[in-house]
Design goal:
Layout (H helix, E strand, L loop, with lengths): L23 H27 L7 H25 L4
Length: 86
């Protein structure tokens, strides 16, 4: 079956105005809160690993900021979708 380009239906998510979102915003807010905890842990890890005097290697410079960025991404996605900002 060949279809013309104009008749292709792409999968998507439709917003249903009378649909109850259920527990989704609450779980996304929890994801945002957990992301904030990871941001704080990333800051603490970065500060503490940079203070190490002996045996500094690449791990000391990379691990803290990676945890910080992962937590920041989780917080932005969690709070953004929970409060319909994204």
């Amino acid at each position: 079956m060949s279809h013309a380009v104009g008749t292709v239906i792409l999968a998507g998510v439709a917003h249903l105005p009378k649909h109850d979102p259920g527990w989704a915003p609450g779980f996304l807010a929890l994801l945002g809160i957990f992301g904030c905890v990871l941001v704080c842990a990333g800051v603490a890890l970065t500060r503490s690993l940079l203070r190490v005097k002996d045996g500094k290697n690449w791990f000391n410079f990379v691990f803290g900021p990676v945890v910080l960025v992962i937590g920041l991404a989780m917080a932005v996605v969690g709070f953004g979708f929970a409060f319909r900002l994204l």
